[in-house]
Design goal:
Layout: H1 13-25, E1 32-33, H2 34-41, H3 46-59, E2 63-64, E3 73-76, H4 78-91, E4 97-104, E5 108-114, E6 120-126, E7 131-132, H5 139-144, H6 151-171, E8 179-183, E9 186-190, E10 195-196, E11 200-202, H7 206-222, E12 225-226, E13 235-242, E14 270-277, E15 284-285, H8 291-309, H9 321-325, H10 336-342, H11 347-370, E16 375-376, H12 380-386, E17 414-415, E18 418-420
Antiparallel strand pairs: 1-3, 2-3, 4-5, 5-6, 6-9, 7-16, 8-9, 10-13, 11-18, 12-15, 13-14, 17-18
Helix pairs in contact: 1-2, 1-3, 6-10, 6-11, 7-8
Length: 424
């Protein structure tokens, strides 16, 4: 679904209390009975005031009533969860305004937001389960096996895990956006003016960039982690300008040096590219049962992309998982997998999230392998009629893109030393 904040300004204090009551009730109920909403919200106006707020919230799609439910009740929609998260950021003075959507993927939306000073930030909204594949029928069965399980619950777990890993990686000096806050199924982070690697058609030195990316994979492994989805969609490339060296010749010397050229002009500015890692919900430990498979997949994704896009093939084999495994915790490297688990992200939550992500990855692989079509998730209105568990989005799903592409054709964007491509 697309985030629309127009209705936020019209919600009253009572409306927010009722919406919060629906969220609280959803922890133990898929459909929250209306009397329970009245009990939790505790409005002074009694049931009449509660019903007025329920009507206002349902009108703008923040809650929904299922027509075939056995009792009178409502459920929280992704729109309602979005509003609650934004309300929390607003009360913390972390988000003041919401801009346009700058990226959309199968499991998340990327929004541009700003604080009161106008500083731009990025809000990532996790939306696990928004795509309903015909080839995968186990989604709802899987959710029913879990107490209080839902795609919203799993989206919240994804956001919590991503925020925890971003904070841990940032503290260890990894090139990741600075995590600024987390609420429910969303993560607020620093905005980095960069382009996804998938849009880069040419770089000054492919070998150097390849070496940097492989070094990041090995460095993550040394800290006990595997990204799990290390590819051109989850790597941003930031262009940085190098200050040219000044002439060694005295300024009064009328004969220019070789560095300054024939006309006495200064040496041309040089540019370097720096990779930035994003997207961490699928990150796993080096001790994971499938760690070798995830590690090899990350390495092979980079190798294939560089060969296909830059026609670069490394002469060095590997790196191999068995060699990376030996470096875990060496040279004083902190085990980040252990520290994140110790921070409160339980093993049960991790197991639930990994299972959900694995299902969605399997569904995408089956769709890609068969060439078959998939059915986009139903909208909120469709869910009311069909009693679907997952939220829907009828918009085209594309991987994350940088705000630098906003309002422009990616095939026509040009920056100093990077050629931007519209290939995917």
């Amino acid at each position: 679904m697309k985030l629309d904040t127009k209705a936020m300004r019209h919600l009253t204090v009572e409306d927010w209390r009722v919406l919060t009551a629906v969220e609280i009730g959803s922890k133990n109920h898929e459909i929250i009975p209306t009397p329970l909403i009245e009990s939790i919200s505790k409005l002074r106006g009694g049931s009449n005031r509660v019903h007025k707020s329920i009507s206002a919230l349902a009108k703008v799609g923040l809650i929904a009533r299922l027509k075939e439910a056995k009792y009178d009740g409502y459920r929280l929609t992704y729109g309602g969860l979005d509003y609650l998260a934004l309300h929390t950021y607003s009360s913390r003075k972390e988000v003041y305004s919401v801009g346009s959507r700058i990226g959309v993927g199968k499991e998340s939306d990327i929004m541009m937001v700003a604080d009161e000073s106008g500083t731009q930030r990025v809000l990532k909204i996790h939306r696990l389960g928004r795509i309903s594949f015909r080839t995968v029928k186990s989604n709802r069965d899987y959710l029913r096996k879990r107490q209080g399980g839902s795609w919203m619950y799993l989206s919240r777990l994804a956001a919590e895990k991503e925020f925890a890993f971003m904070r841990a990686l940032r503290e260890e000096g990894f090139p990741v956006p600075e995590p600024l806050g987390q609420s429910r199924h969303t993560v607020l982070m620093q905005f980095i003016d960069a382009f996804p690697l998938r849009q880069i058609s040419e770089v000054p030195d492919p070998a150097a960039l390849y070496a940097d990316l492989i070094a990041l994979i090995l460095r993550l492994a040394q800290h006990g982690l595997i990204h799990g989805d290390f590819n051109e969609f989850n790597i941003l490339i930031k262009e940085e300008r190098q200050t040219p060296k000044s002439s060694t010749r005295d300024k009064d010397d009328q004969n220019p040096t070789e560095e300054t050229g024939k006309d006495g002009e200064e040496e041309k500015e040089k540019y370097t590219v720096t990779p930035i890692i994003i997207d961490f919900p699928q990150m796993v430990s080096m001790d994971h049962p499938n760690a070798e498979m995830y590690f090899d997949r990350d390495v092979n994704c980079i190798k294939r992309f560089f060969e296909r896009r830059f026609h670069f093939v490394s002469t060095q084999p590997g790196p191999l998982f068995k060699d990376a495994k030996k470096t875990v915790g060496k040279d004083g490297a902190k085990r980040l997998d252990a520290s994140v688990e110790a921070s409160g992200f339980s093993k049960k939550a991790l197991k639930d999230l990994e299972a959900a992500i694995r299902e969605q990855q399997t569904a995408r692989d089956e769709k890609a392998g068969s060439g078959g079509e998939y059915e986009e998730g139903s909208t909120d209105e469709d869910e009311d009629e069909d009693d679907e568990d997952s939220e829907g989005n009828s918009e085209t799903d594309e991987p994350h893109v940088s705000v630098s592409d906003q309002g422009t054709d990616p095939a026509k964007v040009n920056i100093e030393k990077l050629s931007i491509s519209n290939e995917t």
